[in-house]
Specification:
Elements lengths: L1 E5 L4 H10 L7 E6 L7 H4 L12 E2 L2 H4 L4 E4 L6 H4 L9 E4 L9 H8 L6 H6 L1 E2 L2 H10 L2 E3 L3 H15 L9 E6 L14 H4 L4 E3 L6 H13 L6 E6 L6 E8 L6 H11 L6 E3 L17 E8 L4 E8 L3 H15 L16
Parallel strand pairs: 1-2, 1-4, 2-3, 4-5, 5-7, 6-7, 8-10, 12-13
Antiparallel strand pairs: 8-11, 9-10, 11-14, 13-14
Bound molecules: NADPH dihydro-nicotinamide-adenine-dinucleotide phosphate (NDP) and N-acetyl-L-glutamyl 5-phosphate.
């Protein structure tokens, strides 16, 4: 397979290269840039010396139409304009940005504060939460890869909503992310001297992933609800830990909750159900495509605590994107992604 990556110099792009390099079906990877044409990739990213020594290429619709698949890992507002001429001309398109995730263009404009992609393409794009949308992903020509927080949240709560074990009217979701979630562009909030030794909340009640999570709960569990969702920045490089608190429906036991997870994900290689409370954390999934999930019932309050953990750059971005590519091309989901987490 011939693969193109737009946004290769960003964090998501670098992770795509890392995994695609080990993919058994990928013969050629071309890297594209909007700002650094001609620069030999390994001269800028020394860890890829001898691995990718080719120059970065200019983005051009004619060149791009010859690929089997194109990943776009660009800031929001780029692919809404870049991808329309490429839809249906050949390559499968997998977009890591938020531009094709929200079906209602007004939602995108409201939460991202940018112009939305064309409405007809929003209709045709497939939301690539692989474990929940495999049949649609197989047929998709344009995949909207889920956001990092929504991946951790949805994989951990959807089984309970679908099976009517928790009350979806009162979901409180408290999520924390490492700094690489903000991408490679320096900012005040991610400046080392201000982010280090600091644990902060941001975008209070206004995070752009709120409508994405609500839309997916409706799509996959058939429930319309509103959520309380907040995000925090943790002084570490990678990882997301999302904690959801929800009331259980009367009589639901912890055993039922665990069985529901085991049953839902029994054929999914990247979702692990953790039962030891001391064995869940971002270092258990670091560098890998795993999503670890733990559920604990608080009998005193009749509320449940649900924890989802991922590496934001892997299961939350590049890893899930490659998992979707594998499904689109009829390959084993684990192709190129079968790695052990870094842990330390
Ligand atoms: N970081 C994360 O954990 C996650 C990120 N995402 C989403 O994925 C996308 C990429 O994220 P991330 O890799 O972190 O972002 P980065 O900021 O690290 O990288 C984005 C890359 O996009 C390229 N780019 C910038 N402007 C343009 C443009 N106008 N046209 C084409 N390319 C452009 C740049 O490369 P160049 O200058 O060489 O063109 C840049 O290196 C974003 O939409 C992000 O929200 C999704 C899930 C998780
Ligand atoms: C730590 C951090 O800043 N994380 C980013 C992740 C967002 C992201 O990847 O968003 P889209 O793909 O939806 O654009 C944020 O909270 O905005």
């Amino acid at each position: 397979m011939k693969v193109g990556i737009i946004g290769a110099t960003g964090y998501g792009g670098l992770e795509l290269i890392r995994f695609l390099h080990n993919h058994p079906e990928v013969e050629k990877i071309d890297l594209f840039t909007s700002s650094d044409e001609g620069t030999v990739f390994s001269s800028r990213f020394g860890h890829l010396l001898t691995i990718h020594d080719e120059p970065l290429k200019k983005i051009g619709v004619n060149t791009l139409s010859n690929f089997d698949v194109i990943f776009t890992s660009t800031p929001s507002g780029v692919t809404s304009k870049l991808l329309p001429p490429l839809v249906g001309v050949g390559p499968k398109l997998i977009d890591l940005s938020g531009d094709y995730r929200l079906k209602n263009p007004h939602d995108y404009e409201k939460w991202y504060k940018k112009d939305s992609a064309p409405t007809e393409l929003l209709k045709d794009s497939v939301y690539g939460l692989t474990e929940w949308n495999e049949e649609e992903v197989k047929k998709a020509s344009l995949i909207a890869n889920p956001g990092c927080y929504p991946t951790a949240v949805l994989l951990s709560i959807l089984p309970f909503i679908k099976e009517k074990l928790i009350d979806p009217s009162y979901l409180i979701i408290d999520a924390k992310s490492g700094i690489s979630g903000a991408g490679n562009k320096p900012s005040q909030a991610t400046h080392f001297s201000e982010a280090n030794e600091n644990f902060s909340i941001y975008k209070i009640n206004e995070h752009q992933h709120i409508p994405e999570i609500e839309q997916a709960i409706d799509l996959f569990a058939g429930v319309k609800t509103t959520i309380s969702f907040n995000t925090h920045l943790v002084p570490m490089t990678r990882g997301i830990l999302a904690t959801t608190y929800a009331p259980i429906f009367e009589g639901v036991t912890e055993e039922q909750l665990i069985d529901c997870l085991l049953d839902t994900y029994k054929n999914n290689p990247f979702v692990r159900i953790v039962t030891d409370v001391n064995s869940i954390g971002t270092n258990r999934v670091k560098g890998s495509n795993f999503c670890d999930i733990l559920v604990k019932l608080d009998k005193r309050t009749n509320r449940v605590t649900i924890i989802g953990v991922i590496d934001n750059l892997v299961k939350g971005a590049a890893g899930q994107a490659i998992q979707n590519m594998n499904v689109q091309f009829g390959l084993p989901q684990t192709d190129g992604l079968d790695v052990v987490p870094l842990f330390i």
